[in-house]
Structures are given as C-alpha cells and as structure tokens.
Amino acid sequence: MRNIITLTGRELSSQFYSPIAYIVIAVFLVVSGIFFATTTFLAGGPSNCRPLFQLLPIVMVFVLPMLTMRLMSEEFRNGTIETLMTAPVRDIEVIVGKFLGSFIFFLLMLAATLVYPFLVSFYGPLDIGLTFTSYVGLILLGALYIAVGLFFSTCTRNQVIAVLCSFVLLAIVTLLADFLVRQIEGTPRVVMQQVSLLSHYHDFARGLIDTNHTVFFLSSTGLFLFLAVKVLEFRRWR
Amino acid sequence: MITVRNLTKRYGPVPAIADISFDIATEQTGNIIGFLGPNGAGKSTTIRILTCFQPATSGSAVVAGFDVFRESVKVRRQIGYLPENAPLYPEMRVREYLNFRGKLHRMSPVDRTKAIDRVTERCWLGEFVDRPIGQLSKGMRQRVGLADALLHDPKVVFLDEPTIGLDPNQIRETRKLIRELGEQHIIFLSSHILHEVEQICTHTIIIAGGRVLAQGSPGELQEQISAGSKLIAEIKGPTGEIESAIRKIDGVGSVQTDSLGEWQRLSIDANGRADIREAVFNLISKKGWSLREMRREVASLEDFFIKITAEQKQR
Q: Which of B225, B260, B284 is at the close of a domain?
C-alpha cells in the first residue's frame, strides 16, 4: 500500500512535468468549453448541463489516451523499468500506482469543468442530482479509458503505437458501438448495447445510478488493470 | 552471498546463458567480484536474473540468502543495482529521485535524509542534488545511478558496465570509488575491459558465449590459464639422447626438438600444473650437458581473453 502511494505520487508529479499533460488539459477544456457555449449555455434552455455531459465522453476518447500513452512505454524505452522492477515493488503495485496517478490527474482535469454547472446555476435552479450522477458516470468512464490506455502502454515501448491502439479500441466501443446500436435490431442489438460504453453511460447522464452499469465499469476497469499486470509479467518472462 | 547453480536463460531457442554456476562467499572471494566477458557474452542477462528483473529458464540462484525466483522481494531489499547506461527519470531532480527510491525501500523520512546526504557525498553529487537529472552529463547521471544503488545500504551491489561511456578521469574516480565501496558491500561488476577487472577485483569470473570459462582470484586465474604453459630449453649434448631422457621425467607431456647446429632447442609441455623446471635442470647437470637458456612461456590473461573474444566474434 505504501508503495502504491509512493508510485502514485511520482506518477502524478511526472504528469505535471510533461508538456503533453498541459496540451491535454488545454484541448479538453477548450473543446468542452466550445460544446458548453454552443449546446448547453443557451437562453431559454433547461437549467442543466445534459448536452455537455453527452459530449464529454467523446472528447475523452481523444484526450485520455494521450495522457496514458507514456505511462509504461516510457519506462520500457528509457530502461527505467529495470531500476523500478528491481526495487522491492510488485508488478501490481506498479500498475495500480500508475493508474491512480493518471486517474487523479483526470479528476483534477474534470474538476475544472465544474465551472459549467456553476455558471448555469446563476440563471436557474441547477439540477444538482443530475449533475452529480453525470459526474459519477464520467469518473467511471474515465477510469475505464485510463485502464485501457495503461494496458496498451504496457504492451509496447512505442508511445505512438500505444496511443493509436487505445484510441482505436475506445473509438470502437464508444462511437462505433453506439452507432451500431441505433442501426441494428434483435439479438445483435442487445449484444451491442452491452458492448457500447455510451449505452452504459447514458443512464448516468439521465440522472440514474444503476448498479448494473456501475459494476460493468468497475469490473472492466479491473479487467484491463489485471491484463496490464499480466502483460508486464509476461514481458519480463520473455 | 551469491550462489548460482546451472543457470540457463533462453530467448526463444537461443540460449543467452547456458548452465552457469559459481559461488561467491566473501571469505574466499573477497568483496569485489568481476564478471568479465566480451560483448554479448551473457553478462547483462546474468545480472538481470540475479537482480530479479528476469526469471531464468532453468537453474537456481540465491542472493543474500534468498532465492531470486521465490523470494524476489526479499532479495530486492538486499541489493542495489546500476543497470548499463544508468536509466533515470530525466524530469526529476536528483534529491527528489533519491527520495522516491528511498520510499520504495520503505525508509523513514529521517533515514532518507541521512542516506541521501551520505550517498550524495560518497558519489560527489553535493552541488548537483537540486538539479534536474535531464540536465546532467553522462558521468553525473552514472553517479546518480550509483548513489541510488547505495541508498538503502544494500548487502550486494550489482554494477553493469559501470565505467562505459565515461571519460578517463571519471573512469579512474569510479574505480577508486568501487574499491572503497568494496570495504562495506559486496560489489558484483560486469565489464568487458580486462585490465579494469584485473585492477579492482578480488575475484574474477570469465564468461563467453553464455558459459563460464574460468574463475578465481587474479593469481588463480593466471595459474589456470598458464596450466598449459611450455618450458623452452636450449641444451648442448648428444643428439637423440636428450629428448628421450627428458621424456622420462615425471610430468612431462610432449616434447618437440629443433636442431640449432650443436644446440638442441626443446619445447616441453608439462602435464597439468606440474612444475618440471627443477627436474629438467637436475637431469642436465647430472648428465653434464650444457644449458644456455631455460624459460617458461606463460600464457597471459590478456592472450587468453583476446582468444575467447576472437572466438566469440567468429560465432
């Protein structure tokens, strides 16, 4: 546990040293700001941020892999993996530490978007429940995105490959799957609904916290973290 | 302190190291162990296994009393490791990095501060502790890596090619430092430079092509290698009788005779490590022959090392 805190702390501070992190924050806030101004913050609109919360997951597909691509790839490329893994730490502590470091960074980034509901609340009574559940949904979704990105970063020493692979996988399960859900019918549709991350997320954006979806996000995050640990073990066994 | 038994590591079908065995015990071997071999001999692979970075394909290794495979975390608490080229996080400052490493070794804040002061002084990092690692020169980064390896006062310190890429001054300083460190820690260092190992190590293991070729103290090693040494003698006496008489001496292997006018030049191979010089001399004086030269042609460690390095290249 102490090792995890140490590793998380280092990871978080190294995020702040990296220029990519600032670009990621900037892109995230600019794009979400544009969406907020053009779709949400409208005269006569409802006093909530629903349109913004529908779009943020899509922004995150593009932005979070850039945050996670260097996590392990950089360790492999620089050789620091050798000093790291010959210190008395377990593989799982390394992966969880890296994950938490980026996750906390993501939470800080997300905290900056609190300004939007705050602005809305000036013009009408804000739907606090809906805002809360939407944030819960975004946090769960973000955790899964980061776990996927971390998994791909563990697979390769090349950051470009890591970012592209996580981007492709996330785009498939977020955008393509959501598109297919609306195109097909019958059993394939039911299957696609389970695959589509947006289908799981929609209930949160509608104001519902459903155990089903919560468990889905938490267990898929766990799965990708587990896979990352196994890949890290495997890479050393070769 | 280090016991290695039949260690083998394959990458695919190709063995990087095959059936390596050796024992390091301070009483017999001293504290500074040189692991000498040409590039690609399997030095880094062996060190990676001993530092628990990679598991071996087969065989076993015990470091500081613990099995590297089954008790790897315990081993890792007892060792310090400086990998080749000293990989570090360039964005961190020296003190910050050492502090991070100290935390991973579960040192208390007070111990960490003390230890950082100690190792930065030891490795001449004094004025650089608050500089970002990315700004440091290659030699300075090597020192940071060394400081990291010493931070938790480990029993065994593994140094993989610690002087590679340093300038001559830094090499001399590093060697001096290693010699000093040998008083408190067991130092296991790999190198492909013979005279470096000869200068600082109390025990040397020579490895090539993934196999241990020779090991021992510098003296023992010299003896092992010179075991097949030749005795050259130039003798004047009745032709034909000399060679057959010398062949009868105990411990003499093959004898070759060249005729130089009235002198005979004999090159005599001794069996094993037998020293036949006295016996040869006694024979000559008993027979009343003349002797104008007798010398032992000793294979030097350098010849031996050049030979194995050349063999390695041909493979």
A: B225
Please tell me whether residues B197 and B292 are part of one structural domain. Answer: no
Interface touch A80/B11, C-beta < 8 Å: no
Mean pLDDT of A105-109: 95
B73 with B191, same domain?
A: yes
Number of H helices, E strands in chain A: 13, 0
Instruction: Report which of A32, A28, A34, A30 is spatially closest to residue A63, judged by C-alpha positions.
Output: A28
Give the mean pLDDT of chain B: 86
Instruction: Determine the structural domain holding residue B99 and report its residue range.
Output: 2-225
Instruction: Give the mutation candidate from A73, A82, A233 for the B interface (greatest B CB count, under 10 A).
Output: A82
* Interchain proximity A86–B53, CB inside 8 Å: yes
Question: Residues B81, B199: one domain?
Answer: yes
Residue B25: predicted pLDDT: 84
A10 part of contact set with chain B, CB < 8 Å: yes
Q: Coil, strand or helix: which one is B65?
A: coil
- What is the maximum span of chain A, computed from C-alpha positions, in angstroms? 62
Taking each helix axis as running N to C, give the angle between helix A159-171 and helix A50-68, from 0 to 180 degrees, rounded to the nearest 10.
Answer: 150
Nearest chain A residue (CA) to B11: A238
Query: What would the mean pLDDT of B32-55 be, rounded to a whole number?
Result: 90
Strand order in the sheet with B290-297: B252-260, B263-270, B230-236, B290-297
Among residues B186, B210, B225, the one where a domain terminates is B225
Per the CB < 8 A criterion, the answer to whether A80 and B141 are in contact is no
Secondary structure string (H, E, C) spanning A16-47? HHCHHHHHHHHHHHHHHHHHHHHHHCCCCCCC
Is residue B95 domain-resident? Answer: yes
- Side-chain-side CA neighbours of A54 within 13 Å: the count stands at 9
pLDDT at residue B211, rounded to an integer: 87
SS3 state at B2: strand
Indicate whether B84 and B99 sit together in one domain. Answer: yes
